Amino acid sequence: MPRSQRFDVLISHRFANPWGQVFDHWGQWLLLDASGGNCCSRPILTANFVYPKRNERRRESPALCFAPEGTAPSTGIEIIRNRHFREQAHGRFLVNELSTHGFLGTYWYDIKEKGTSYEVRRVTPHLVATKDPLYRPTAMAFGPEGAMCVLDFSSPVIENTAYSKRDPGRDHSRGRVWRISYPANPLLQQPGIVGRPSRVLLDLFNEYENTTRHFARRELQQRRPDEVVPALEEWVAALEPADPRHERLLLEALWIYQGLEVVEPDLLYKLLQTEDYRARAAATRVLRYWQDKIDDSIDWLAKLVEDEHIRVRMEAVLACGFSSSGRAPEVALQAARFPMDTGMQKALDDTMGFFERSSSTRP
Q1: Is the C or the N end of the chain the one with fewer CB within 10 Å?
Q2: Residues 205-233: pLDDT tens digits?
């Protein structure tokens, strides 16, 4: 954490080659393993446990992954959420494919949650398809005007260890950027970000595009807390409870406090009890980082591991693994009384493994 200069375990995984990540509208985190072309809901991999562990396979279990059709090397993922693309495509999950023995281009999928993970259905025709043997899409992102850019290494070889680093086929001087837009819809106008008043930037969280909110959030979190917090308090107080976006906007405010490393327990408690499970899960993830500054944090975790939704329970179990309370192992185990899936089982096993390992190393 930049302000406190504190280090925590962010993620522990057995992926061979992570090469792409994306956050959805509620801050849920997806990760791509380039070598196998498989994706994983990243919170499953965030237990306070450092790999490698003994007698384990190198890669994550396929049961923890989604997009099973993507079995060839893949690089870069995205989620469509901008008004320039047609509404039918909003929410689709994108994956670049760079195989030399099959499809070259970008797949897109209809995606929906399934327990702690997701399930997908490939949509055809594909977003991008080419027979160019040099096409090597390595990343993609939406620009401020709404068009999507794909970074293409344009190389005769795939950039991996199958070829010598001095192989003459490695082209270090040329590449391509492909820009994809939807001509039937006008391009967007990116609002100004840098140097704008904090109150103006906070209003940008009403915008539909993830890109706009990302840049506004980053600008605010880089400022001094005393420049942002007064405006943030005023903005939260003015939010309309009847607004269907109310819970997500409160969550945006919580993330600003988190980025500024200013603990705001009242807002956190409100979101931990809100109706939308996605907001509760995201708030539980914030509790994981704030719990050493909140006196009753373990009592909250004891409630959250019994939440009606499995994603909230999983975040609570993972938060227990970062708790200094002696009750944390007992609280985490409460989750075993509720329905489990593969991701939830992994989160609980890794968290309990951390407790076991910690107790065995104590003097």
Answers
A1: C
A2: 999 999 999 999 999 999 999 999 999 99
CA distance 46 to 40: 12
The SS3 assignment for 182 reads coil
What are the extents of the domains in the chain?
A: 18-180, 190-260, 263-363
Euclidean distance between CA atoms 95 and 350, whole angstroms: 29
Coil vs helix vs strand at 249: helix
C-alpha dihedral over 252, 254, 259, 260, to 10 degrees? 120
The pLDDT tens digits of the residues spanning 152-176 come to 988 887 766 677 778 887 777 889 9
CA nearest 283: which of 332, 307, 22?
A: 307
Fold of 263-363: Leucine-rich Repeat Variant (1.25.10)
Q: Are 273 and 13 in contact (CB under 8 A)?
A: no
Positive or negative, the CA dihedral 294, 296, 302, 304 is negative
What separation in angstroms does the CA of 241 have from each of 248, 271, 318?
Answer: 11, 13, 30
